[in-house]
Write a structure and sequence with these properties.
- This protein is of the alpha/beta class.
- It folds into 2 domains: 164 residues, 3-Layer(bba) Sandwich (FAD/NAD(P)-binding domain); 131 residues, 3-Layer(bba) Sandwich (FAD/NAD(P)-binding domain), CATH 3.50.50.60.
- Helices cover 34% and strands 25% of the residues.
- It is built from 12 helices and 21 strands.
- Strand 20 and strand 21 form a beta hairpin.
- It starts with 5 loop residues before the first strand and ends with a helix.
- Keywords: FAD, Flavoprotein, Oxidoreductase.
- It holds the Pfam family Pyr_redox_2.
């Protein structure tokens, strides 16, 4: 690394960071050295994971190698996990043993599963459950469950209550129904599914029923290799528990000494900067594509000076839910559509957006 140039470190190969790399490939990186740190040399599009599980798209459709984009951008790639962040000393401790210094830092990482905390809430989870995060681990282990379902009928439980958990339950139901009739239960917690979105709730519940997915308004409080223990005292026979809830901000970021908001998360301003450490930028989970150009411009401003841009407000009210089997639901406020045409629209949109991230 050229010590005369400022050092920009990108933690995580999230979608917004891919947009930054694409900009670097097109516009260059004058005045700075850039390093990308990520655990794996791939990007996995989380929004297409249910389609892959359902058998509607191949793994190579949603897991894209980073090498060409990184090379075109001029960035260095470091395959490592983050161990800790020293915000005051401007250093990142990596699993490789290296301490990586930075002038400007950007964080766009996959949500992390606090396995020790989940183990306290659900004893047996670490040994028995298949976690959906990290995504790379899930896509490697999922074929083993598919193979087992080819041998005998399975009782599968998806633990989670948000849209990704619902999509996963429907995808698994499609994928494992044949040849032995594996069954899926969605363990959705104490509160009704999608209670704040009645139009979407109505259509989703109907689709879950059509797929013979049992929805339990109960919490999992433990598991072994044969069953889940529920908060009501009931036992649910289960061969394969899938944990689709609980992913959150990584511990190393929460423990970095950054100013926190009321929810205990790092406080970030409208320019995506930490409120307490302005040389650190944090991309919110699920940020829309419109955030990419703003982050790119603000990172360049932080390096070279200039005027910062404001991130756009929350994205569209359109909610699209993949239902497996080439079906999807789209809802805008009280209005909704569902069926194969919605799925084709979603699939084309997802593929177009993904391809756009890696175009030269």
């Amino acid at each position: 690394m050229n010590s005369s140039r400022k050092h920009l470190v990108l933690l995580g190969a999230g979608r917004t960071h891919l947009q930054v790399l694409k900009s670097l490939a097109r516009q260059g990186s004058a005045g700075m050295s850039v390093t990308l740190v990520a655990p794996h040399p791939y990007y996995i599009e989380a929004g297409m994971l249910p389609a892959h599980v359902a058998g509607d798209c191949a793994l190579d459709d949603l897991r894209i190698p980073l090498d060409r984009l990184v090379e075109a951008s001029g960035a260095a790639f470091v395959p490592a996990h983050v161990i800790s962040l020293d915000a005051s000393g401007r250093r990142v401790q990596l699993s490789s043993g290296d301490a990586l210094p930075y002038d400007v830092l950007s964080v766009n990482v996959e949500p992390a599963v606090p396995r020790e905390q989940i183990e306290e809430q659900m004893p047996g989870a670490r040994r028995n459950a298949l976690f959906t995060h990290p995504l790379e681990n899930f896509v490697q282990l999922w074929p083993q469950l598919q193979s087992l379902a080819q041998e005998r009928a399975l009782q599968v439980a998806v633990v989670g209550s948000d849209v990704p958990a619902i999509e996963l339950a429907m995808a698994v139901a499609h994928a494992l129904a044949a040849p032995h009739g594996s069954r899926v239960t969605l363990v959705a917690g104490d509160n009704p599914l999608l209670a704040d979105q009645p139009a979407l709730q109505r259509r989703v519940l109907a689709r879950l029923k059509a797929l013979n997915i049992t929805v339990l308004q109960d919490r999992c409080v433990g598991m072994d290799g044969r069953a889940l223990q529920l908060a009501t005292g009931a036992t649910l026979v289960c061969d394969a528990p899938l944990l689709a809830d609980g992913a959150t901000t990584p511990a190393w970021l929460l423990q970095a000494g950054l100013q926190a908001n009321d929810a205990g998360e790092p406080a970030v301003n409208e320019r995506l900067q930490s409120d307490s450490h302005r040389q650190i930028f944090i991309v919110p989970d699920g940020a829309p594509l419109e955030v990419g150009p703003v982050l790119d411009a603000n990172l360049r401003t932080a390096i070279a000076g200039g005027t910062f841009k404001k991130a756009p407000p929350a994205g569209s009210r359109l909610r699209v839910v993949a239902c497996g089997g080439g079906q999807a639901i789209a809802v805008w406020g009280p209005l909704g559509l569902e069926g194969r045409e919605v799925w084709h629209w979603k699939d084309r949109r997802d593929r177009r957006q993904l391809a756009g991230l890696f175009e030269a």
